[in-house]
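Lab notebook: predicted structure, single chain.

Context: the supervisor wants predicted structures on file for every construct in the current expression panel, including those that have not yet been purified. This is the next one on the list. No modifications to the sequence; it matches the entry in the shared construct table.
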Amino acid sequence: MTNRLTSIDTMPNLEVLNRYRLDKGGIGYLEQLLYNKIQPLARRNNSLSVRDKILVTLRYLATGPIQLNDADIHGVSQPTVSRVVTEVVSALNSPDIVGQFIKFPCTREELIKNQQEFYGIAKFPKVVGVIDGTHIRIQAPANNEELYVNRKGFHSLNVQLAFDPFDQIIDVVCKWPGSVHDSRILQQSGLTTIFEGGHMPVGQYHLLGDSGYPCKKWLLTPFINPQTSGEIGYNRSHKITRAKVERGIGQLKRRFGVLHREVSLKPEKVCKVVLACAVLHNICKRLNIQMPLQDDDDDDNDDNSNAQDNTINGNNAAFQNGLRFRDHIVQTYF
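Prediction complete. Output recorded below exactly as produced.
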């Protein structure tokens, strides 16, 4: 079959990167990774090859929900683009694929490596990850529309993301409507199970989050009104270190422009698109694929920013223990 798409073999690698967000090596890697999941079931003259499907999907994820333009560029119909994107995104959501590329550090060696790397940023001790939420705009859904309106007044999904010091995603939760607060998403996420279910030594490893989260022994937040030199130094180090999550979210959204605009899909399909982008982000990190020079929306600003005074759950014993542990960190290290 003659490949109906423009061959990337004749393109400069930089052009491939700017158009598809992965370079030639990355696209080849995806072909091997997904071959058994998306290969054509029958040899027909009009069937798309594995590479065709990957290129169509990457172009969609790179530029946003403009499927007609994608169809024109690749010489296929808009329904074909929709079908192919669904197929490839579903393959990237396979548990074996997600589990291979998005993993929370679990071995002592991995945890120590993360601690050392984070400590080298601004001398904040015992950090193994940084966490934040970000809003992904969606079209108004037909069901429970009001639940998806966030505090800024637009429809969205609130996505929880955690990053390691190497800008890799180590946890992602994408299933909650935009009106749901970060603290609730965290409480019902796998991270809480990991840290409060006996899988991590208490007080030995922790995450950094903003004031939208309750302070815990395993999740340290900044002081709203720092008073002492120790608290000021703690906040300074916390801010510089936690900037890693803002950098990571910025890279994710700049690489995959679909996350910058309103996604015209049902919420459950948007969740799959977000997870697929997270997997691809980590593949890019693993293969050392650089950020594209051509950014459709060069905007690092996060839409979430729903931080509140960290007196959230102020009467909760676990929260009070978290505050005391934070004071211990200040007194010991700052």
